[in-house]
Amino acid sequence: MAAMKKAMKAEAMKAMKKAMKAKAAEEAPAMKAMKKAMKAMKAKK
Fold first, then answer.
1. pLDDT tens, 1-45?
2. Angle at 29 between CA 34 and CA 23, to 5 degrees
3. Which domain of life is it from (predicted)?
4. Domain total of the chain
5. Cα–Cα distance between 37 and 32 in angstroms, integer?
6. What distance in Å separates the CA atoms of residue 31 and residue 35, rounded to the nearest whole number?
7. Taking the complete model, does pTM exceed 0.90, yes or no?
8. DSSP letters of 1-45?
9. How far apart are CA 6 and CA 26, in angstroms?
10. Domain range spanning residue 11?
């Protein structure tokens, strides 16, 4: 049972990491745009 739980956890972690990577790839341009906007706002002040 413990081994099965460990295996399931490992699979879940792998799936989560994959999802995170995919999400990061999608969000990278948005994050860059946000950072640029933040810099622009700070510069205006």
1. 788 899 889 998 999 898 888 887 778 887 888 889 889 888 876
2. 110
3. Eukaryota
4. 1
5. 9
6. 6
7. no
8. -HHHHHHHHHHHHHHHHHHHHHHHHHHHHHHHHHHHHHHHHHHH-
9. 30
10. 1-45
